[in-house]
Target: ROK family protein
Amino acid sequence: MATDSARNFATVALRQILGAVASQEATSRAEIARRTSLARSTVGQQVDDLLRRGIFEETEAGSSVRGRPPKVLAISPHAGTIAVADVDVNATKIALADLTRRIVARSVVPVPVEDGPAAVLGAVTSRIRELLGAHGRDGAPVRELVVGLPGPVDFQHGCAVRPPIMPGWDAYPVGAYLREQFDAPVVVDNDVNLMALGEAARDDVDAPLLALKIGAGIGAGIITADGSVHRGADGAAGDIGHLRASGDSEVLCRCGKTGCVEAIASHGAVLRDLGFTGEGGTARLTEAVAHGDPEALYRIRQAATEIGEVVATLVHMYNPRTLVLGGPMSEQRDELLSGVRAVVYQRALPLATRRLTITTTEPGSDPGLAGGVALAARDVFSPEGIARLLAE
Model:
């Protein structure tokens, strides 16, 4: 009985200490003792255990007022690996990160989503393994793999549900397939949720946050004031692309209905109407806008107006502090922002907009990958994740 009690106490102490260092609330043994109220001898024993396990590393600080420099504790970059796959229509972006959220490798798998889950996930699996080997991560086990899919996702079961732009993916067990490949927990989420998490992780962004991805379709990700993703009862929250557009349109959408905002205002719809289909369509649109092409400017402004109508409703419902517009359409930053802002400030009440920031994703950034890393790191250092980490 006494042995079991001592073992339980040691496990609880390990979790407290690991959580304090992972959250950066404490970076030394003395700070850990103050934060956790554990005896210094207990802290010393458990820290030494975590150092032996390779979960912690202890280094000397750069300077000291007198005597030896203090020692600083941190999560070891070799304690494990996070893998993220952000699946999009034409390709999948991949990133590897250590448990401190530092991205150590990036790559792109140029397999279109319409080739089906076996082709895409097979290529993703191979590339992740290549990256693990090339960057010396073979000895750092994959602690969690996060996948973003461009369609409705059943978060609990790890699969897409009747995704309009993903033939063959309906109910395919994405999570189960990758768990078997990497013997690690797998989280499957909507790609816009990951984008929203990535934007919310920026230092200059305030929550609650609403993120819109305007690409082949249109989706929204909602981050609450406490930094959590609002997925709804079944994971369908934010699937706004199939709301009815404000205009009297009978344009046929891929979902089989007519007049959906996605069919009228998505990046894909703009390219289609301008005849910029096929490879290089986005570059052609950017060039046309840069040269002041009246048809291109008119079509983007028309799309921005429709998107603004939807956003105005969402602003009333969720009252976000930040609205971020992303996806390939955000490359037309000036035209898109001016159009959306004009409608939102006209339609929404002053109380909902007086402190609202409307912006676009940073050029060249990958908020979907950053969001996947943030989600995985949070899971790894949750009570359940820490229990898994210490069970090895």
Summary: Residues 319 and 352 are 6 Å apart (CA to CA).
